[in-house]
Design a protein that fits this description.
Three copies of one chain form a homotrimer. With 340 residues, chain A is α/β, with parallel strands linked by helices. Helix content of chain A is 40%, strand content 14%. Chain A has two domains: 138 residues, Rossmann fold, CATH 3.40.50.1370; 173 residues, Aspartate/ornithine carbamoyltransferase (Rossmann fold, 3-Layer(aba) Sandwich). The first copy, chain A, is built from 13 helices and nine strands. In chain A, the strands form two sheets. The first copy, chain A, has a five-stranded parallel β-sheet. A four-stranded parallel β-sheet of chain A has the order 2-1-3-4, sandwiched between helices.
Chain lengths: 340, 340, 340
């Protein structure tokens, strides 16, 4: 295992992640990628620890990824099922979290449709002087840190298959395309990509990338004055794609249409859908990422999605298990039952 | 492990529990509390055994508690999910239970909204000459034995942190407040608390503690003539709280209002809600219990619920895992795959 | 373990199963029956492997059977829950399968209400040059191979408790009764039973066993010309039951009535329900099978279902775990993490 230090109890946001923390996650994940290439893909690192998935917003793929990461660390898992829960019985979210704390949970992985819920639970865990760590698995339109970290690992693996490092992305041009406004994936990626020194170009229609988002961009550029951030906004696809090294398309929620933010899926695809033709604007070895699940023919053409020369979508899913193992390991290894 | 004898195949009700059985559960649970304080919180006691949670009535917190108890005993678990079940396909409850028997279940944990279902399944298991044990995890308005046993352990832990014993409760005054009529938790607690020699005071509005409940009380006092039972009914809160050592509030189902059993939640809280002010009637070191999930501001004030000087609610959840490990261990250890 | 060869990556259908493959499954299952009779019922055969249950059509009993089989082989399991899935988010079935592939799945167990879905996923796994195996756990009205194999094992166990072999069934008369048209269980059993040399008699009302089904029968008789197939159709119960050694009743979906395929359940029971009286037409030691869940008093009388002298229903459920262990073991043991 990597011997770098890690002092973070919770992983709630990448906004204040330091370069050293990114490196620690990348290197720990790389060591778990090595484990996952072995005949026996399990390590006893978190044996006897309990990891609870509190998914107030249902999600099969992300929950499966965390569940598998936990199992491969030999932890026990509990799953909170929203449909059959006490939530319908009037219990507050904090009381539900405290119940799982009292049951013996060591780490909580939390997803909720409201921004700030994982933060609120983490604060409560600290206030109660527990050493339970909270991992944000997606909160409203705020952040989804493990998704951005798996995107980072996927890109780094491509740039240097041996040692993933933040600096590999320096000067690379990354386009993030689509529903920026509603995307927690975009927000987390903005922090990690700008921290790496990449040039980040946001592109989307004005309804999904409103002009006032420039305030967020300006704010983001100020937060770490020692790392000059390169973050630009476009309301057309072309300037974002031109000479891009990586294109991240975002999932388009179908309800955006009923909210009158879009005329039709077809029109969206015509303006912002990623196709083989459009990729000709990019670097010849450009790669495409998507957090999934994909609406084929909307965010990305079906042919492009299945083209292994361009699509990194499967690699993202695979990287996700290694990154989540790394996060759970780093958060959990200082606890009783964790490796010393 | 404790070396006391245990001859009970099923745990369906506390009505006929003997003092020796209470002591065995308490001492076995205490030994598991010691396990749960270790670095590695698992024991191989039930390795290879299959524990099936047949929760016909959904319950996240109780199911999670049983699931974690089973995992910490190294058993394998199966969960029966009512929503996606054969129940909608016309299969009878007994046939569902027999299917899980034939799959290889060693112990069944059963919750159902109708009283008597766990008993019926236990009878069927005996009739078929299996040695499968059945644990009642709540049946209608009848009983919820593991809840009363975890309440008992929680109280005993407080009275003597070293050795939990039934006799610690002798002469203590315990108030059970609220919807007695519909509460399986109250019924199970009545048996365990009166068996301990505590003085039990029931308090609630006449709609939720009807006068005919006196028949149940009279019956309860007769069942074990060698242990004089002290059980009283009140239709006001004050006489129950006066000089009480412990106050158990019961969950109020919101549907009680639509059934015209209550004018409003606010009015209920005014008459029977537990608050810091009202606790001044009790002993100075009084403690409050609640089986959860709590309706804050209804059964108990929000401030009181969060006050660690008075509230035992978190301890109850924690005790639950140890008590359920004890019950599963005692029921399962004589079986193939269990410890000798 | 059995040392016979096994070259099949997927188990999708029994139509092209060879006699040697049937024997391998039967003997491997028998060796796992021996494991299941031990004190510790687990083997480390698939430790570190991930088996994903993709049950697009919900099924508690079949999923529990596969889940327990996987656990007893020490595999890790992931469950795809249709209600809370990306399916509602517009993702295609193949993309869902590819996500679970990328997560690290070694074997997929797939149920879907449309015929052909497991086949399509298996083709995709091959096209992507993975070595992931796909097991069909029921696809529409097509096939349910593991059900027919557990029926076969159940019957063989009865005919020779020591060594289950296909040839034991040679010349036996087996009646399959009920909703043949809509039954994937019937179709899989037709392949396994005719392959064994048994005489198979199908019986049902013309709405559920239409005359054009004769085309399927004719086709089935041609597929393996070296094994003469004996397969007959009847629109009355009596000729099928006369001197039968085994009677398989099929589950009647209640929606068949709303589809005007049946006048009433009562009428169906009068014409095709299996009762003690009707069994007098059969051999004296006749046995009855049903894939479950049973509509008591419809497909079979309640008394007969509970009569251990005639009913093999519990044995079928028990055989299911051994057969599924065998299939998962055979499909998975050549993989990394599987036994050499």
């Amino acid at each position: 295992m990597v011997t770098t230090t890690w002092n973070r109890r919770h992983v709630l946001s990448l906004e204040d992640f330091s370069p050293a923390e990114y490196e620690t996650v990348l290197q720990t994940a790389a060591s778990f990628q090595e484990v996952l290439s072995r005949r026996t893909k399990k390590v006893p690192a978190l044996q006897g620890q309990v990891i609870t998935n509190l998914f107030f917003e249902p999600s099969t793929r992300t929950r499966s990824s965390f569940e598998l990461a936990a199992k491969r660390l030999s932890a026990d898992t509990l799953n909170f099922a929203p449909g059959t829960s006490s939530m319908t019985k009037g219990e507050t979210i904090l009381d539900t979290a405290k119940t799982y704390l009292a049951l013996g949970t060591d780490l909580m992985v939390i997803r909720h449709r409201e921004a700030g819920v994982p933060q609120a639970i983490a604060q409560e865990m600290d206030r109660l002087q527990t050493n339970v760590g909270v991992l944000n698995a997606g909160d409203g339109q705020h952040e989804h840190p493990s998704q951005a970290l798996l995107d980072l690992l996927t890109i780094c693996n491509l740039l240097d298959p041996k040692v993933p490092q933040l600096s590999l992305l320096k000067g690379k041009k990354v386009a993030i395309v689509g529903d920026i406004l509603h995307s927690r994936v975009a927000r987390s990626n903005i922090w990690s990509l700008t921290a790496s020194g990449a040039e980040v170009h946001l592109a989307g229609p004005p309804t999904l990338l409103p002009r006032w988002f420039a305030d967020f961009v300006a704010e983001a550029e100020k937060t770490q004055p020692d790392v000059p951030r390169k973050l630009m906004m476009h309301w057309q696809l072309e300037p974002a794609l031109r000479d891009a090294d990586f294109v991240m398309t975002l999932r388009l929620q179908q309800e955006r249409m009923t909210q009158h933010l879009l005329p039709s899926l077809r029109e969206y695809h015509q303006q912002f859908g990623i196709t083989g033709d459009r990729l000709k604007l990019c670097k010849p070895d450009v790669k495409v990422l998507h957090p999934g699940p994909v609406n084929r023919g909307v965010e990305i053409s079906s042919e492009l999605m299945d083209d292994p020369n361009f699509s990194l979508i499967s690699q993202q899913v695979t990287s996700g298990v290694a990154v989540r193992m790394a996060l759970l390991y780093l958060m959990g290894s200082g606890k009783p039952g964790g490796e010393a």
